[in-house]
């Protein structure tokens, strides 16, 4: 079948001005090129190292905000496209949340796991990030919880959360410290 490409931000989340982040494109490809597009325009040809190509953003500004996509090309033909990664550069105006996991960092496959993101703001909503994934999960607003049941090996990885409030405009928190989930 055709190769698949995944795109993700490392570390995940909205980034503050002046900070650094890396856009990672991961591909089970042979040879050929990975090309990074920003807002529909060719942005950069990336060098494939093993199964991953990376594009670093340092000293981020509003100019780095945009919709990024990776294309895998061989001889000028596009063989695969990633999903769209929306990169946002915003000031952090909320306190840093705290991420916890129950029953603990190591669980048996099939267990019931709850991620809890706590922030000192009652009206904030929070996203749960899993490193290496483009999609974030919106935590349930009532409890700030995200439930995984039954947990499986694919849920393993490095998690973090980030919160925001929607008043006249969005206000963002920093990203929480990371938490590793191990599934036995």
Automatic annotation (TrEMBL):
SUPFAM superfamilies: Immunoglobulin
Single GO BP term: cell surface receptor signaling pathway
Keyword line: Disulfide bond, Glycoprotein, Immunoglobulin domain, Repeat, Signal
Keyword NAD: no
Residues spanning the signal sequence: none
Domain Ig-like: 3-86
Protein name, as recorded: IGSF1 protein
Gene name tied to this protein: Igsf1
